[in-house]
Design brief:
512 residues; single chain; alpha/beta; six-stranded mixed β-sheet
């Protein structure tokens, strides 16, 4: 053996011996040992599922204008005027913006039968649908909504506005509007946070721990750019069940996330959200937001008292007035049931002699938000009467209807449509005629009556039917649902004229 090979052999033997010695001295594994469990105050949610927001009675709204290119649906809350105005403002802003882009003036529009516009209000799936799914094959603007909270006295609605033009990527913005019906306070999600930066450390730490970081260094304060991105993410968050769930935007950056293998790719493929527990989030929330995060119990807000109670913006949605003459009768409750189920309102021109025989029906008409008008006491043709007789026919009826309904009863309809200036002067009130007469008193076939009543009206139509006619009672559900399918909102006369019915003889609404 050469000296070089002998020395190498001795070194190899020494190394093997040392390795065996060290192996024999290695400590035994500690039973039950687990890696450190980090406490960040939050968890990662890969595909958040919306919790039950609670139940509330709302009125669904809908508009669609194909000339301008806008389709919107939203919900109003009974008795919450300030909240409804805030929601409506979001819709109006989108309508104005879209009208400017299209170069077309906006007017309420209705569509042929089968348009499918009877589906209104909010649906929960709109929050998670992609922008392309919301838009469908349309170019323009689509507004959808989601009820995010209805607990205790608190209510919240998310309005999502998705717009596209040409080949550009869709813009997709959301606004959540909250109200406390006990105080009428109204806030948006931008008003919920006192200090967005206070949530940043827990938010970033939760993300880096989930990505496998073992760093012990504290999370650095965000830069102005990072904080702006984070604030935008907060606007898309929701507060419920003792936590705030904050989405993770694609533009998010943080020093603590740099170099973590696969984090960015994973975030792009399956954008996560960070759920921070209330104990972590409360210090950055306003008192209103703290109440939201702890809201529980059934919604205590008012239930709907009928579509006539909630104001309808007839310059924004296509309205018409459905009027029913000659009742009340034993059939009137059937008409009322349909109007209730279809969230629609009507004006009932009542005969005094029939109101005297059906006082409870008069009260129900008023209680469910419908309008009551004067149709004389005995259906007399007013142009054939003396001044004293006109005053008696209208005066007796008005006094009874006001006493039963609690309404002012400030309009009248002349039987048969027979009217002249003298009668108008004696009445001192608007005389309401019509622009569409179904002639249901001629007893047409049910299908013909229903088809005409659905297809004939235009925006601002005043349509005449009778709640004493059995044929109208049989088809009334088809008529109301068919009108809503075309896009109509059925409103009272007062609503059609924004609370101010013009004097003189009136045949149609202001937008006809």
């Amino acid at each position: 053996m050469t000296p070089g090979r002998s020395r190498s052999a001795r070194l190899l033997a020494a190394a093997v011996g040392t390795a065996l010695l060290l192996a024999g001295c290695a400590p035994e594994p500690v039973a039950g040992w687990e890696p450190r469990q980090w406490t960040t105050g939050g968890t990662i949610i890969e595909a958040p599922t919306a919790s039950d927001p609670g139940q509330a009675s709302t009125t669904g709204m809908r508009l669609r204008n194909d000339d301008v290119g806008i389709d919107a649906r939203w919900a109003t809350l009974p008795g919450a005027a300030a909240f409804n105005a805030a929601v409506e403002a979001v819709v109006r802003d989108a309508v104005v913006t879209r009208a400017q882009v299209s170069g077309q003036g906006y007017r309420p529009m209705v569509h042929p039968s089968g348009a499918g516009l009877g589906e209104r209000g909010c649906t929960p799936e709109t929050a998670t649908a992609s922008a392309s799914d919301v838009l469908g094959n349309r170019e323009g603007t689509v507004i959808v909504c989601e009820i995010v909270l209805a607990r205790g006295s608190l209510f919240g609605e998310r309005l999502r506005v998705v717009s596209t033009a040409g080949s550009a990527e869709p813009s997709d913005t959301s606004t959540v509007i909250y109200t406390d019906v006990a105080t009428d306070e109204v806030v948006t999600e931008a008003d919920l946070f006192t200090d967005a930066g206070a949530l940043w450390p827990a938010y970033i730490d939760t993300l880096r721990r989930d990505a496998g970081s073992l760093s012990l260094s504290p999370v650095a304060a965000p830069t102005d750019e990072q904080l702006a991105i984070f604030r935008d993410a907060l606007l898309g968050s929701h507060l419920t069940d003792d936590e705030i769930v904050i989405p993770v935007p694609a533009a998010l950056t943080a020093r603590e996330l740099d170099g973590l293998a696969g984090w960015r790719e994973r975030s792009r493929e399956h954008p996560p959200s960070v759920a921070l527990h209330a104990s972590v989030a409360l210090r950055a929330l306003t008192p209103f937001a703290q109440a939201l995060i702890r809201a529980e119990g059934d919604f205590t807000g008012p239930s709907t008292a009928g579509a006539g109670v909630a104001p309808t913006p007839c310059d924004l949605v296509p309205c018409m007035a459905l009027t029913l003459d000659d009742g009340p009768s034993d059939l009137t409750p059937q008409f009322l049931d349909v109007l209730r189920d279809e969230q629609s309102a009507a004006t009932f021109f009542m005969l005094g002699q029939n109101a005297r025989s059906h006082p409870d029906t008069v009260r129900r008409v008023a209680a469910e938000g419908h309008q009551i008008g004067n149709h004389t006491w005995s259906h007399a043709y007013l142009t054939e009467l003396t001044e004293e007789q006109v005053e008696d026919e209208l005066g007796r009826t008005a006094a009874l209807l006001r006493a039963l309904s609690g309404q002012p009863v400030a309009t009248f309809r002349p039987p048969g449509g027979f009217i002249d200036d003298d009668v108008v002067a004696i009445a001192g009130e608007p005389a309401i005629l019509w622009s569409v007469d179904t002639r249901d008193w001629e007893k047409p076939a049910d299908d013909d009556l229903a088809r005409y009543a659905v297809e004939a009206p235009a925006v601002s139509t005043i349509m005449l039917m009778h709640d004493i006619q059995a044929g109208s009672a049989r088809v009334f559900d088809r008529v109301v649902s068919g009108l809503r399918d075309r896009g109509f909102s059925l409103v009272t006369l007062d609503a059609l004229f924004d609370g101010s019915v013009p004097s003189g003889i009136v045949r149609h609404g202001p937008l006809a």
